[in-house]
């Protein structure tokens, strides 16, 4: 029989685990590069840019537009990786806490993404 109180307790446990996972995302690092490594971006699990490395060969006024495009591409790649890492961390932190209910997607639980 379905025990509502037990399920509510599990939900509180899931919320606590999600909050813990969110707090750890600031320490996660994801990397992206473009232009065959001429531009490299590092973001954390909260998709904040941590560092940006632009090869000195791109520091030419004539290449400004290309450099901007490469920066955007590198940051976007790093953010995609950060999202995948964050989803994996969330899944790992809540694994086994709730039953596998078809159609129930916890990837957006707690506003993580």
UniProtKB/TrEMBL annotation:
Assigned GO CC terms: bacterial nucleoid; cytosol
UniProt cross-references to InterPro entries, sorted A to Z: YbaB-like_sf, YbaB/EbfC
Organism: Aureibacter tunicatorum
Subcellular localization: Cytoplasm, Nucleoid
HAMAP family registered for this protein in UniProt: DNA_YbaB_EbfC (MF_00274)
Gene3D superfamilies referenced in this protein's UniProt entry, alphabetically: Nucleoid-associated protein YbaB-like domain
Record-given protein name: Nucleoid-associated protein HNQ88_001159
Top-level taxonomic group: Bacteria
Subunit details: Homodimer.
Gene Ontology molecular-function annotations: DNA binding
Chief place of localization: cytoplasm
Annotated keywords: Coiled coil, Cytoplasm, DNA-binding
Similarity section: Belongs to the YbaB/EbfC family.
Function text: Binds to DNA and alters its conformation. May be involved in regulation of gene expression, nucleoid organization and DNA protection.
UniProt entry tagged with the keyword Cytoplasm: yes
Chain coiled-coil ranges: 4-31
